[in-house]
Amino acid sequence: MENEVLIIPGIIALALGIVAIVISFFLIKYMIRGAIILFAWAGEQGFIGLAVYFACWFFMLPLMGVVSIVVGAIDWWGER
Prior knowledge:
This protein is mainly alpha-helical. It has helices spanning 2-44, 47-59, 61-79. The longest helix is centred in the N-terminal third of the chain and has 43 residues, at 2-44.
């Protein structure tokens, strides 16, 4: 009887885990793509642009992560 009670929550937990992994792969893909785009844009500004870019990653890590995800998602969806 105990095994039957745990089957449904186990299936739900497995499904949620798979969904979380898929979403995290998309977010990582968007973040890397956005970081590359922002790096290229900062490189066009010269040394000061690259210095500010790396300083932002060091001092504003969560914000830069979110901005990179947004920029990468916009770029990826813009290609479609």
